[in-house]
Amino acid sequence: MYCKRSAKYSPWMLHRYSLVRSQDPNQRRVLDSATRQRRLNRQLEALEKDNFQDDPHASLPPLIKRLPQFDENNESGKRRKKTRGDHFKQRFRKNFQTLLEEEDLSVSEGPNYLTACAEPSKFPQRHFCAVCGFPSNYTCVSCGARYCCVRCLGTHHETRCLKWTV
Amino acid sequence: MTTLVLDNGAYTAKIGYSHDTVSVIPNCQFRSKTSRLKTFTANQLDEIKDPSGLFYILPFQKGYLVNWDVQRKVWDHLFGKEMYKVDFADTSIVITEPYFNFTSIQESMNEILFEEYQFQAALRINAGSLSAHRYFQENSTELCCVVVDSGFSFTHIVPYCRGKKMKDGICRINVGGKLLTNHLKEIISYRQLHVMDETHVINQVKEDVCYVSQHFYKDMEIAQLKGEENTVMRDYVLPDFSSIKKGFCKPLEEMSFSGKYKTGEQILRLTNERFAVPEMLFHPSDVGIQEMGIPEALVNSISNMPEEMKPHFFKNIVLTGGNTHFPGFRDRLYKDVRSLTPTDFQVSVVQPQNPICYAWEGGQLLAENPDFEEMVVTREDYEENGHFICEEKFDI
Ligand SMILES: Nc1ncnc2c1ncn2[C@@H]1O[C@H](COP(=O)(O)OP(=O)(O)O)[C@@H](O)[C@H]1O
Ligand SMILES: [Mg+2]
Ligand SMILES: [Zn+2]
Ligand SMILES: [Zn+2]
């Protein structure tokens, strides 16, 4: 049920690395800083996700009620009296971002959700290999990812680096 | 007249009557690959025989209640005949909310509690305030404390002085247990086995094998060693949900350093993942979240407090929330805070017996407190004065 990845730790990777290195390094594309930032943001957004797979009920016939799902076409004809239910339905639709914007904290005084966020650290940034997670001393010229050794750089080029689209 | 105490976390609801004990119950719904027609609510999770690829439907987003439909399904289940059989007309509720909860969420909360369920009375309060109450009850000579609450969505550091929340000191780090599990999933999937759909399984791996390092770079060196010298390395046996119901760590004496086992189980080999994942709580910038880690944020938060209170805060740091369960959490926090604090301050970090239910226990104590009647808003009050009275009385 768990599916195996074979990208790492095979001697095959080392071999592929030498192919990569034999290219003129100047010919490797270099990602600009905006792209690098987008990539980081996407990684951080992924860390907030509730699920990576699709809802297993998503492929079921539409008759079956799914969550969250709202009856959107009951406004037709004469406008119904607003019931508590409707009132809540409006609120159900608001995600975190909408609620935050509604709070309009730019005009509020005193501490609030935005001001309470921890400041950037005063300690220096630490660096870890994007492949194996051990401390790293080198930066990939193309994408800015960190790596620790020739072998990990090879894996990185093969698997992510310029292949990871944003 | 009874009081129901509900610490309504983004991951679990800590719930029970104040005269009774607490239960910890998933605050969400689930769908499984095998039961194609059913949505499971809260502790119905236990009915799912094969929770591989378990799909979560969570009422909270970034720690704030946004999906009321799901939340009400969970509450209906908790309050209803399956579980607490609440007699609303004769029950008060103590219920928790996050710091700086948005106004519209607070109002929805009032409406649901008083109009929908029709509780007799309600007290809405931050979980950290209940924890502080719990702490001051047990340590009645202390004047101040700092509550560190590291839960599913984020981590808060909040100074309290004589039961009063010091709003200027509240600090939120956007790292919680969810982020740690997702990060662990990501690095395992990249390095060895595709487990991106296995949040439930990998969350268990996290709770079973991760720890907070006391000497981070030293552990990094050990984790790179070969064979028996690598005392960090563990092989984790993944559940197959038929013969292996729950994953577990291979006992050290059965560990094979080649990673080959005769039995055909699926193994995850963990080295630096074990401590690099919880390290995000101490150095969020390691993964690109440019925020202070817990020790630095805590010292920074106290530095904004009045001078005469500072020593009282440093000697009353109290840990709550699920992430503080990681082995080594307390010692590391102590060590780091110690190193960032002038030596003439005494530093003391208290790890309660049950950091997940500490706030609930505070709610239980509060419900028995003679002042409790004064703190609640009754349904009558609410019907007469609406949201206004709640805004007046509750300090969210
Ligand atoms: N023994 C443990 N070790 C590490 N993490 C744990 C442990 N027990 C619970 N957790 C984590 O704590 C988080 C939930 O903490 P909790 O304080 O109950 O959160 P909330 O109040 O936000 O629901 C989850 O991410 C869970 O994985
Ligand atoms: Mg909590
Ligand atoms: Zn590496
Ligand atoms: Zn690269």
UniProtKB/TrEMBL annotation, chain A:
InterPro entries: Vps71/ZNHIT1, Znf_HIT
Keywords tagged on the record: Metal-binding, Zinc, Zinc-finger
Pfam family, one: zf-HIT
Biased composition (Basic and acidic residues): 45-57
A GO MF term: zinc ion binding
SUPFAM superfamilies xref list: HIT/MYND zinc finger-like
Signal peptide boundaries: none
Tree of life domain: Eukaryota
Name the record gives this protein: Zinc finger HIT domain-containing protein 1 isoform X1
Species whose genome carries this gene: Chanos chanos (Milkfish)
Taxonomic classification: Eukaryota, Metazoa, Chordata, Craniata, Vertebrata
Name of encoding gene: znhit1
From TrEMBL, chain B:
Subcellular location: Cytoplasm, Cytoskeleton; Nucleus
Taxonomic superkingdom: Eukaryota
GO cellular component terms attached to this protein's record: cytoskeleton; nucleus
Pfam families (alphabetical): Actin
Chief localization: cytoplasm
Protein keywords: Cytoplasm, Cytoskeleton, Nucleus
Coiled-coil residue spans: none
Family designation: Belongs to the actin family. ARP6 subfamily.
Name of the molecule in the record: Actin-related protein 6
Species whose genome carries this gene: Chanos chanos
Lineage: Eukaryota, Metazoa, Chordata, Craniata, Vertebrata
